[in-house]
C-alpha cells in the first residue's frame, strides 16, 4: 500500500505557539490531533523556542487547559542551550566560571538545576540570552561588558516577535539585536532553525530515526520551515499562527505542505492511505 506523502512519518516535531496554543488559549482540535498520534504510535515532541517556561510549567499549563502533555514530551530552547554547555568542553569550562542570564525562569531554572553558577555581575564566562520581559538598560550593560571582556554569547532563539492574544510582542531576537548592536557580536543560536536544536530533538525521540522519518509542523517560515529545509526533512506550515496567508509567502523557506491547523495536517498525512 502506498501512503500519500504520509504514513511514512515515524515522528513529528510540533511547534507550540501558533500551533498548539495562541497565548493561553488552545487552538481548536489540537487534542484530537494529539489523540490520533498517540493512537497510531507516531512519536512526537512539542518543540518551542520559548525559553521563559520550564517543560514542567508548560506541561502543567497545557494539562490545565485540557491537553494532556507530559513534561518529557516537551523540548525548550533553554534545554538545548543547557545541553550545549554540557556537551562542549570549551563552553562548559567557560560556563563554570559564571553565567550571566538575560532571561526568565525557564532558562534560569534549567541552568541552575544543572549545576551552573549564575552571576549578576559582569563575567568573562557565558552570557545566556532568552526572552526577558524585565529587560533593562542595566542588563544590556552587564551583558555588553561581559561579551566585550570575552564571555561567550549564546542565545536561545532569534524570533523577533511572538504571538499573544493581544497580537505580536517583541521576542528574544529583539533583545539579542540590542546586545548585538552594542557589542558588534552575533550570538551562537541554539533554538530553531539551528541544526543543534534538530539534532537534540532527534536524540530525544530515540536514536533510530533518520531525517526522512521526521515531519516538522510550525507556523513560522523563518524558524520552523527553515529548520526543515536546512536539515532536509518534510514540513507543514499551518495557518493557525503568525502566517495567515500562504499565498503571500515571500522568501526562501518552502514548506512541503500547507494546512489550516495541526489537526488537518495530522488527519491528512497520518490517517489517509492512498492507492
Ligand atoms: Mg510558532
Automatic annotation (TrEMBL):
Gene Ontology MF annotations: phosphatase activity
Coiled coil (UniProt feature): none
Any one annotated GO CC term: cytoplasm
SUPFAM superfamilies linked to this entry: HAD-like
Alphabetical list of Pfam families matching this protein: Hydrolase_6, Hydrolase_like
NCBIfam families: HAD-SF-IIA
PANTHER family: 4-NITROPHENYLPHOSPHATASE-RELATED, HALOACID DEHALOGENASE-LIKE HYDROLASE DOMAIN-CONTAINING PROTEIN 2
Designated name of the protein: Uncharacterized protein
The species this protein was found in: Candidatus Marsarchaeota G2 archaeon ECH_B_2
Amino acid at each position: 500500500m502506498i501512503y500519500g506523502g504520509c504514513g511514512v512519518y515515524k515522528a513529528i516535531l510540533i511547534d507550540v505557539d501558533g500551533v498548539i496554543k495562541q497565548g493561553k488559549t488552545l487552538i481548536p482540535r489540537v487534542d484530537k490531533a494529539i489523540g490520533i498520534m498517540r493512537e497510531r504510535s507516531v512519536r512526537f515532541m512539542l518543540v518551542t523556542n520559548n525559553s521563559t517556561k520550564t517543560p514542567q510549567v508548560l506541561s502543567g499549563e497545557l494539562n490545565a487547559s485540557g491537553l494532556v502533555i507530559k513534561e518529557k514530551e516537551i523540548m525548550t530552547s533553554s534545554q538545548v542551550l543547557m545541553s550545549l554547555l554540557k556537551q562542549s568542553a570549551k563552553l562548559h569550562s567557560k560556563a563554570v566560571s559564571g553565567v550571566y542570564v538575560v532571561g526568565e525562569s525557564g532558562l534560569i531554572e534549567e541552568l541552575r538545576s544543572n549545576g551552573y553558577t549564575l552571576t549578576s555581575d559582569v563575567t568573562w564566562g557565558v552570557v545566556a540570552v532568552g526572552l526577558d520581559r524585565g529587560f533593562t538598560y542595566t542588563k544590556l550593560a552587564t551583558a555588553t561588558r561581559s561579551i566585550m571582556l570575552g564571555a561567550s554569547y549564546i542565545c536561545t532563539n532569534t524570533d523577533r516577535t511572538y504571538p499573544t492574544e493581544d497580537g505580536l510582542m517583541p521576542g528574544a531576537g529583539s533583545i539579542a539585536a540590542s546586545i548585538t548592536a552594542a557589542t558588534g557580536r552575533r550570538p551562537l543560536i541554539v533554538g530553531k532553525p539551528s541544526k543543534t536544536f534538530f539534532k537534540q530533538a532527534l536524540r530525544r525521540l530515540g536514536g533510530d530515526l533518520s531525517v526522512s522519518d521526521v515531519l516538522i509542523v510550525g507556523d513560522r517560515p523563518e524558524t520552523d520551515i527553515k529548520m526543515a529545509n536546512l536539515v532536509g526533512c518534510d514540513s507543514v506550515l499551518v495557518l493557525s499562527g503568525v502566517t495567515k496567508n500562504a499565498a503571500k509567502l515571500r522568501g526562501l523557506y518552502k514548506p512541503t505542505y500547507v494546512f489550516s491547523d495541526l489537526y488537518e495536517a495530522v488527519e491528512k498525512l497520518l490517517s489517509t492511505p492512498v492507492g
